[in-house]
Amino acid sequence: MTSFGAANTNPNKSYEVTQPPTDSISSISFSPKANFLIATSWDNQVRCWEISKNGTALNTTPKASISHDQPVLCSAWKDDGTTVFSGGCDKQVKMWPLLSGGQPVTVAMHDAPIKEVAWIPEMNLLATGSWDKTIKYWDTRQSNPVHTQQLPDRCYTMSVRHPLMVVGTADRNLIVFNLQNPQTEYKRIVSPLKYQTRCVAAFPDQQGFLVGSIEGRVGVHHLDDAQSSKNFTFKCHRESSDIYSVNSLSFHPVHHTFATAGSDGAFNFWDKDSKQRLKAMQRCGQPIPCGAFNNDGSIYAYAVCYDWSKGAENHNPANAKNCIYLHLPQDSEVKGKPRAGSTGRR
User: Fold this and answer.
1) Which domains are delineated in the chain?
2) Long-range contacts of range 98-104, CB-CB < 8 Å, 24 or more positions apart?
3) What Gene3D superfamilies does the record point to (predicted)?
4) Residue 334 in 3-state DSSP?
């Protein structure tokens, strides 16, 4: 396999976030209202930066941080941009009233690490997905969940575009919920990809979802069987015989194209409707475990750090920087292409 060594972690000349986490970064998420960026890390911390634009230049200012007792795996914002939720290996979710300067409080508990968290404004509830094989829905003013949904296996990934929620678990299960009736599975699908699911992203129009696997492949899946002819899979994050995990799928909030990021250290922009790659970026010197667009799609943030996919024996602390970068996408990179009469697969 390719060795990353001390290779360039910023070949795309992206803006670097100051004072990054001291260990691998597990999630990043932007405020839905302003350019505040949250990152969670294996160093047990949740950090916030304010990003300011000066023409085409970006400046990042560390604003605040909170601690968990163990590594933090996931993060989400409340829709009003005031509050952050974070969960992880201490089996709890903390609610941090960031903008008011308040102290974090525990608002959710599981019996195993919490891998995913999502605020659902249409329900005024927090959804949490755990390796204890459940999803729980929480009214943050109450200590017990309003509903606990059993899953067939450990929750690995979750994406919500109300009323659509897609959950990827171990054993390649993809469970689809209609949140207007959240206590019943709407559909259970075996992943169209042959290997373990790493990430999912619900379409902005709620008509389907993307799924990415450890085997450098993405599936585009429509929920309506009448649209099944539009389903396809494609390869990405591969280099000759080396195959890398697809770690992150993010839809652009305006153009509805999407970004993939992978353990090969690359991020790419794609248009599912014309089945084209819009832009391939240079490979960074370490894997990209997570990426996210800001609320208007003018910034794509991505973390570059060791992702432990090759185990502790391949972790070289001397070379392992933990970086968060900010890329300013050009229109040509993220704007969809007109559909040709008949486009083949990529």
Assistant:
1) 15-334 (2.130.10.10)
2) 98/36, 98/48, 98/63, 98/64, 101/64, 104/66
3) YVTN repeat-like/Quinoprotein amine dehydrogenase
4) helix
